Structure formats: structure tokens, C-alpha cells
Amino acid sequence: MHAIEVQHVSKKFKQQSVLEDIHFTIETGEIVGIIGPSGTGKTTLIKLMLGMESLDTGRTKICDQLMPDFSVLGKVGYMAQSDALYGELTGKENLAFFGKLYGLKKEALQQRVDYVAQVTNLAKDLSKRVSSYSGGMKRRLSLAIALLPNPDILILDEPTVGVDPILRQGIWHELNDLRDQGKTIVVTTHAMDEALRCDKLVLLNHGRLIALGTAEEMTGKFNVPTIEEVFLAAGGEEE
Ligand SMILES: Nc1ncnc2c1ncn2[C@@H]1O[C@H](COP(=O)(O)OP(=O)(O)OP(=O)(O)O)[C@@H](O)[C@H]1O
After folding, report:
1. Residue 139: which domain range?
2. How far apart are CA 137 and CA 125, in angstroms?
3. Nearest CA to ligand 1 atom 17
4. Which of 13, 53, 83 to probe ligand 1 with, by most ligand atoms within 8 A of CB?
5. Which GO terms describe its molecular function (predicted)?
6. Is 56 contained in some domain?
7. Nearest-angstrom CA–CA distance, 52 and 44
8. What is the ipTM of this complex?
């Protein structure tokens, strides 16, 4: 069974074609990076995977279940691109609120809150109101919320934007650990150094899948030294 299947997915917003016949699978226990320029359809693709947007053609499955399927969403931690947080509440109150929504009870909730606060380096800021958080702190709190239910699958839309390099490294270390525990992780990113940390890459350009595989496979196939150059080479080939 694949962790996630994207089968011949196309999507238009009005007359604008955003994704065209995207087809790939994601296996359990891998970190997959969805990479592409701004506006190329990464967030839309993630929303289609989760069943949050309607498809024009194709279908998506998570754990073999056709999406949308609420029973599957319990297994998925989703971090959206824009932070959906309660500014008037403290970080801890936000975590408690979302933890309860996930069905976590007292002791388990406390344990998870301690763990996610440590991973995202927010422990000392948890009693502050979120309205006083910086952009990076809000990103980290959103990541902490996605990690709360200890999901099998993590889908993270630009999780490290605005996060400083040291903590970024810490977060990637944690994502690697989670992958090693058998979790499946999907991240979107613009950062090429982050792309290199992924086990597999999905390269999108102008709403099309232009390359799929490991970074080494891609640079080897196009005979170029970097992923940036894969973009140029693959984009050029497409046109
Ligand atoms: N709900 C919507 N209605 C109309 N157009 C939309 C909608 N959502 C996205 N789009 C358009 O679809 C295209 C792809 O957007 P999307 O957010 O998926 O790109 P992205 O690759 O995630 O970009 P970024 O890296 O800047 O976040 C853009 O042109 C965007 O304006």
C-alpha cells in the first residue's frame, strides 16, 4: 500500500490551469519534497491530496482511502502555509485547544505538549500570547500543532519559512528521526538545501511534474551539478 497516491490530477481555477495530469506515489517512511517556483501549484497539490480542494480530473488517496475521507484525516498532521492560530490565547492554550480537538487527554496531552514545544524550541515562550509572537515563532507553533497527535503522515507547507538556520537544522533532525520511526513526511519548500535533505523530490513547474526521484537521480539524468540546474534543464526540455 502506498502512503499517498496522486493519480492523474488536474486542477483549474476558472480558466487558469494550475495543475496538469500530476501522477506519482509516496511510500511509507520517506520524506518527499515538493519543489517549485512560487505560484506553480505546490499548495494546491497538497490541498488536493488532503481532499480540501475539489479535483477536475484524477483522484488522490491516503492510506488507500479515496480522499476526502475524515477517518483518514486523524492519521495526518497538516501544517498550512498561513498560520491558523488564536492570537488572543497563549502558545500553551493553543496547543491545549488543538490537542483536545485531536482527542488527547490530560496526561497524554501534557506529554505531547512538552515534546512538541521542545522540538520547536518554544518551551520558554508557551505562556506568551500568540499575538506577540514573531512570524517564525508562529510557524514553529503551527508545526508543533501538526506534530501534536503523533500522526503517521505529516504534510507540511513551507514549515521552515522565517525559522532561523540553527532551529531549521533541529527541525530537519527531528523530521529525519520521525521518518526513521516510519512516518511519512511531505514538505513543500523553495530552499534548495532543504530539497537535498529529502529522500525523493517532486519537481513542479508551470503546474506540470517535470521530474521525480532522488536528487542524485535527477542531477544524474540531466547531467547537471545542482537541483536548480535540473529545473533549467527539465524546463528547457519541456518547452
Ligand atoms: N482558491 C483559489 N482561487 C483562484 N486561484 C487560486 C486559488 N488558489 C490558488 N490559486 C492560484 O493557483 C496558482 C498556484 O497557487 P499555489 O498557492 O498552489 O502555488 P504555490 O506553488 O504553493 O506558490 P507559493 O510557493 O508562492 O506558495 C496561483 O496562480 C494562485 O494564484
Report:
1. 77-150
2. 9
3. 43
4. 13
5. ATP binding; ATP hydrolysis activity
6. no
7. 9
8. 0.97
